[in-house]
Amino acid sequence: MGSLTQFQKSIIVGSILGDGYIRIIPKRKNAFLEINHSFKQKEYIDWKYQMLKEITISPPKMRKCNGKRIAHRFYTKQLPEITEIYRLFYRGDIKVIPKNLVIDPITLSVWFMDDGSKCGKSNFYLNTQQFSKNNQIKLLNCLEKINLKARLNRDKNYYRIRFISSSIDRLKELLKENLIPSMNYKIGL
User: Fold this and answer.
1) Percent over 90 (pLDDT), the chain
2) Whole-structure pTM value
3) Given the DSSP bridges, would you call strands 21-23 and 32-38 parallel, antiparallel or unpaired?
4) Domains parsed from the chain with CATH numbers
């Protein structure tokens, strides 16, 4: 087992920006990534597993609640490189956005598959309500570096990222090569 590839790192970072979670078990040296998606997203979790297979413990397993299938989940091994990523993205148990975050097309695609949504023909969002407003401003700056313009959109008591209309074609261009087929609906394909 060698180092993580850049592709794997991009998937991990995209997952952390979305639904993924890194943690360290008390008294253990290294962190691991937990990937957890709804039962309806089986194709997506299977894709993530295949891309990260060499660093996982076992294939995705189904979680049940009250006898109903609700989700699929898998874990990576505890690795020093995941610990480094953990130190960049967490302050205690709170996810933060590091100053030097770079978003590439793979990271963006995984993040969008996790937390992206489309409303109507031209409203595209990243559901970033889990992050503080200051961290979301950092994310806006990261998106600007890849020529995506967005703003914070109030969603009840929280904010989320909404892409402005002039960036939708660019967003779709960056995403379309990396979305798995079952996620094409998120960009209207």
Assistant:
1) 72
2) 0.92
3) antiparallel
4) 6-92 (3.10.28.10), 105-184 (3.10.28.10)
